[in-house]
């Protein structure tokens, strides 16, 4: 059932179907209030690739009853605003799920965009936050998220963690004669995807590090 315009009102069962029942192979990362998954919506004539975000009861962040519902509706209202619908730097909303105990949104998402396709889009943007883009990119490809618990434990931010790994790689490379694979922080579960190009791991890692 549609929720007005091209935005679809979805059931939780729809989200499960899109993500192969929220399988580990489709899991992307955590965000502050839940999880992100990639998925696909198969039609007779075409397949639409999507990203599914679900809200969960947080074990770390303090919240009041209704907070997650408010966050979901704020996001839906924002992404349906005529001023942002065609914004080149914002995701396109496909639909949302608003059920008791189950909340989620679905974005259109092309997982086959290469590094070379991403760079021209950044270059043509009138306004951009390069550091934020790099941080988000590092979080996605490494499946790492800086949480309140990390802050309390004085853990490094994802950009600091990635740079530290790069320094370790450089030192290790200088102490060995063997030819090592190029530096990459892409998570093994993403590298195992049959559509993943091994050469993209280093390229997209380098792009993210340049941004931060």
Automatic annotation (TrEMBL):
Q: Give the organism, scientific name.
A: Erythranthe guttata (Yellow monkey flower)
What main location does UniProt list?
A: membrane
State the Gene3D superfamilies in the record.
Phosphorylase Kinase, domain 1
Q: Where in the cell is it found?
A: Cell membrane
UniProt entry tagged with the keyword Membrane: yes
A Pfam cross-reference name: PK_Tyr_Ser-Thr
- Record's GO cellular component terms: plasma membrane
Q: What is this protein called?
A: Protein kinase domain-containing protein
Molecular function terms from GO: ATP binding; protein kinase activity
Q: Which InterPro entries match?
A: Kinase-like_dom_sf (IPR011009), Plant_Ser_Thr_Prot_Kinase (IPR050823), Prot_kinase_dom (IPR000719), Ser-Thr/Tyr_kinase_cat_dom (IPR001245)
Q: Which residues form the Protein kinase domain?
A: 22-212
Q: Is the Electron transport keyword given for this protein? A: no
Keyword annotations of the record: Cell membrane, Membrane
């Amino acid at each position: 059932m549609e929720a007005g315009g091209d935005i679809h009102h979805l059931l939780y069962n729809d989200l499960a179907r899109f993500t192969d029942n929220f399988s580990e192979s489709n899991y992307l990362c955590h965000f502050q209030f839940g999880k992100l998954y990639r998925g696909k919506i198969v039609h007779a004539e075409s397949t639409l690739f999507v990203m599914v975000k679900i809200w969960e009861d947080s074990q770390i962040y303090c919240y009041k009853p209704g907070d997650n519902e408010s966050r979901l509706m704020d996001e839906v209202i924002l992404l349906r605003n005529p001023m942002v619908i065609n914004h080149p730097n914002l995701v396109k909303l496909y639909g949302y799920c608003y059920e008791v105990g189950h909340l989620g949104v679905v974005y259109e998402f092309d997982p086959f965009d290469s590094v070379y396709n991403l760079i021209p889009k950044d270059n043509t943007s009138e306004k951009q936050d390069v550091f934020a883009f790099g941080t988000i990119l590092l979080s996605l490809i490494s499946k790492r998220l800086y949480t309140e618990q990390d802050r309390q434990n004085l853990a490094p931010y994802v950009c600091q963690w990635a740079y530290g790994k790069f320094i370790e790689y450089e030192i290790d490379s200088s102490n060995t004669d063997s030819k090592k694979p190029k530096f990459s922080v892409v998570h093994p579960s993403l590298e195992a995807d049959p559509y993943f190009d091994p050469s993209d791991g280093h390229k997209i890692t380098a792009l993210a590090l340049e941004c931060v």
